[in-house]
Amino acid sequence: MSATQQSVFKALADPTRRAIIKSLQRGSQTAGELAESFPISRASLSHHFNTLKAADLVRTERRGQHIVYSLNATVVEEATAVLLDVLGGGRRGKGGREKETS
Amino acid sequence: MSATQQSVFKALADPTRRAIIKSLQRGSQTAGELAESFPISRASLSHHFNTLKAADLVRTERRGQHIVYSLNATVVEEATAVLLDVLGGGRRGKGGREKETS
DNA sequence: CGTATATTTAGACATCTGTCTAAATATATA
DNA sequence: TATATATTTAGACAGATGTCTAAATATACG
Prior knowledge:
With 102 residues, chain A is of the alpha+beta class. In chain A, 52% of the residues lie in helices and 14% in strands.
């Protein structure tokens, strides 16, 4: 399954990471390709990649010297579902507390 | 309109604040009522309220000594739309607001 | 007015976060 | 092997975040 709900929302809280996600939505990219789109050091970018990987929002695959990043849309869907649940009217299981998968 | 996209995702990044939002989905509550549900001080809770208000995720209304908090579902919907946009394959919304409203 | 209740603000403090530069690791290729 | 390229890791640092206690503010009521 995915990482914790907490790690996903934490990852989504940074604008650079949201931009990375959005960029990957158009297709997989190597770390170097992504780096060309962002005005921060490659080391900082790598740090963001770690956060995104911890949330399972992106997957990686080595291709020669390069590492290819791709979006894991399933986790984005799960985050969407969490928000939709808040909107949904919430007659959840008989007065029971929702299990907050933090 | 709503606050920045950044303030909304920042607000959603904390599990206590997500729980507050979820609690308010069942109906408006006073600060004191909410405080009974969370094992942190009222001062800390008030701090979270400020973050949620900054994101326009909640609205307040004074009722006597009490302050009533209610969910602003519109902003939750907007956050959902941002995530759906990532999933959607980049179809543009009318109005063309592609700018990252960080 | 004076006191009780409800909530927020102020100040402090430890921890987390995003960034950087420098160094390390991994792969490709001459 | 030696060297170049790609990416990550290590260490440092300023600023943000979440929490607390104590004090301040706002309203209600005797």
